[in-house]
Amino acid sequence: MGKAELRQAEEEDNPNSMRGCGTMSRLGIALVTLSLAVPASAQQQGVVDPTWLTFDSAAKTVRFELIAGLTGLNGALNFNGFRDGGLTLVVPVGWKTEIAFRNHDGMLPHSAEVIAQQTPLPTQSVDPAIARAFTFQLSAGLRSEATDVMRFAAQPAGEYLIFCGVPGHGAAGMWIQLQVSATATTPALLLTPPAPSS
Fold it and tell me: Is the peptide bond before 156 cis (omega within 30 degrees of 0)?
């Protein structure tokens, strides 16, 4: 049997072979290929789920659900489907803050910590900027569906990052912003405009 005949026999025996597929199958593959070519910013429309944030103004307490790898955006290196600071959590200064972390990524470990804004971004975990504002296993990360809760007082006022401390993740865009505000009266989740390109 020649090479061409052998290849034809293998294709006929292979259920995954594209040989003989109709136009619709090829069209489906073309659409998948085209959707992968769409920029990540167009794939993610920046939808904020209001259930992520709850608070009690009288008690001055806030709870934020932080979900690592919620979507496939940025290879799942995202928090709540946002990357590179595209989401900002605003907390009034002094409020008792609880950030409930969950790693939704089925493949990679992740962690979270509140760090000072800095350029360039660190390539691994650093000392947290606010006491107790970090998950366990900062460098190793927590496995898929593992959870942890950060509990801390939101102070001092300033601009911070909620950053994945697993080496390379935060620097690759796995961070959102935390604003501890001296002027805000209630917590909020805000879409953050992208930084202008230089």
Answer: yes
- Reported pTM: 0.77
What is the spatial distance between Cα 77 and Cα 93, in angstroms, rounded to a whole number? Answer: 29
- pLDDT band for 193, please (50, 70, 90 cuts): confident
Helix (H), strand (E) at residue 185: none
Please state, in angstroms and rounded to a whole number, the distance separating the CA atoms of residues 51 and 64: 9
3-class SS of residue 132? coil
Mean pLDDT (the chain) is 83
As a whole number of angstroms, the distance between CA 87 and CA 53 comes to: 13
Tell whether the model's pLDDT for residue 186 goes beyond 70.
yes
Cβ contact 66:99 at 8 Å: yes
Type of residue found at 10 = E
User: Residue 33 in contact with residue 27, Cβ under 8 Å?
Assistant: no
Give 172's DSSP letter: G
